[in-house]
Specification:
Helix 1 (about 35-55) packs parallel to helix 13 and helix 12 packs across helix 13. With about 400 residues, this protein is of the alpha/beta class. The two termini are about 25 Å apart. The chain has one domain (about 1-380): TIM Barrel, CATH 3.20.20.30. It has helices at about 35-55, 75-85, 105-120, 135-140, 145-165, 200-210, 225-240, 260-280, 285-290, 295-310, 315-320, 330-345, 360-380, and strands spanning about 1-5, 60-65, 95-100, 125-130, 170, 175-180, 195-200, 215-220, 250-260, 325-330, 350. GO terms for molecular function: oxidoreductase activity. Keywords: Monooxygenase, Oxidoreductase. This is LLM class flavin-dependent oxidoreductase.
């Protein structure tokens, strides 16, 4: 099992009573709730946490992109990746998971940013491409009905820029460049590894599993039942297209908390994971899934799974039962991760060891215990025969 430490960088000082007036921490929450002095302190604190995880032996650290919300203060993850590039050990990778291609106006800028990071890290960059969740389309005034086609064209343009000798013209439906001639070229050849995070859209799973790509698929923000289905869907799609998917092509992004024992872990984590679920992740369905954002079939599946994520007040106990949170002493966390791996067949874990309002001391404690007591016990764990589940 391979481990990355993932940070959302939320505005942890968010007034918890904001929801008495506003429906969500996304899109319409006034930025008067943000105190720049506190925010600056949080940025430095969060970078310290990412650097600490890298120093303790995680394979890599992960950052991502969200816009205009208190849930994640990283509208420009390339900036944070650049700050980390010279400060973390040269054994640690940096995963940018990922750039939200359809809501950005210039894919060549993304190609350039990633190429620079790939050179600075001498090939330790893991790139990620996402469509961005529905709220981003509200925030940045992008038509969600164009999401898929903008994503695919932007992806194809970036791949061409990385792998083709320039200059050459690009004339697509959404992007037009008379001269594509990337400087610098990417360090890793033919291009850096690509991971595709998703909430579980069928179209996204099939895109990642295509034999021309074989991108790593990373399941995010979903209960365990959805995780098992999407892992199976990827394997089925790979088999249908003529190859067998590797467990290293499958990953899970999951919030975790580990302490000295189960009782201590649950007591320390409970208020902070519930703040994450009920304050930071709070979002009306129309923000998450605007009309036209995804196909009808995927829409139905996502709505069903997201009822357990964004619908109603969620307790820590419910999240533990659903498999959207893992919490306990070291052996409990080891056993649960091993069981999820056995049933899901994945080999990558994107460990969200900070969430919501979890303070710095508990975050550092969580990182340390996880790195020193959980990771060593699972470093040789690989999926065996995975029990089959219905992919639909």
């Amino acid at each position: 099992m391979r481990f990355y430490f993932f940070h959302l960088m939320p505005y942890a000082d968010l007034d918890p009573d904001y929801d008495k007036t506003y429906p969500s921490s996304w899109v319409t929450l006034p930025n008067s709730f943000y105190d720049p002095v506190k925010g600056a302190d949080l940025y430095h604190r969060y970078l310290d946490e990412l650097e600490y995880a890298a120093a303790l032996g995680f394979e890599g650290v992960g950052v991502n992109e969200h816009h205009q919300n208190a849930y994640g203060l990283m509208p420009c993850p390339n900036v944070f990746a650049g700050m980390l590039a010279r400060r973390i050990p040269e054994t640690a990778k940096i995963a940018v998971l990922g750039r939200a291609l359809p809501v950005l106006s210039n894919p060549l800028s993304v190609a350039e940013e990633f190429a620079v990071l790939d050179n600075i890290t001498r090939g330790r960059l893991v790139t990620g491409f996402v469509r961005g969740i529905g709220a981003e389309y509200h925030s940045l005034a992008v038509n969600p009905t164009e999401s898929h086609e903008r994503f695919h064209e932007a992806h194809d343009l970036i791949m061409a820029a990385w792998t083709r000798t320039g200059p050459f013209p690009w004339e697509g439906k959404h992007y037009h460049f008379p001269h594509v001639n990337l400087w610098p070229r990417v360090y890793q050849q033919p291009h850096p590894p690509v991971w595709i995070p998703s909430q579980g859209s069928r179209e996204t799973v099939e895109f990642a599993a295509d034999p021309a790509r074989r991108y790593t698929y990373l399941q995010t923000a979903a209960p365990a039942a959805t995780l098992f289905r999407t892992m199976q869907l990827y394997r089925d799609e790979a088999e249908r297209r003529g190859y067998q998917a590797s467990p290293d092509q499958l990953g899970w992004s999951i919030k975790l908390y580990v302490a000295e024992d189960d009782a201590t872990a649950r007591r320390e984590a409970k208020p902070h994971i519930e703040a994450f679920a009920n304050k930071f992740l709070r979002m009306p369905q129309e923000y998450l899934l605007p009309p036209g954002y995804t196909s009808l079939a995927s829409m139905k599946g996502l709505i069903q799974s997201r009822k357990t994520i964004t619908g109603g007040y969620r307790t820590m106990e419910q999240m533990l039962e659903q498999g959207t949170f893992i919490c306990g002493g070291p052996q409990t966390v080891i056993d649960q991760l091993a069981e999820y791996q056995r049933r899901g067949g994945f080999n990558l874990v994107m460990a969200g060891l900070h969430f919501g309002t979890l303070p710095h001391d508990l975050t550092m404690k969580n990182i340390e215990i996880f790195a020193k007591q959980v990771m060593p016990a699972l470093k040789d764990a690989v999926p065996g025969a995975v029990p089959r589940v219905a992919a639909e």
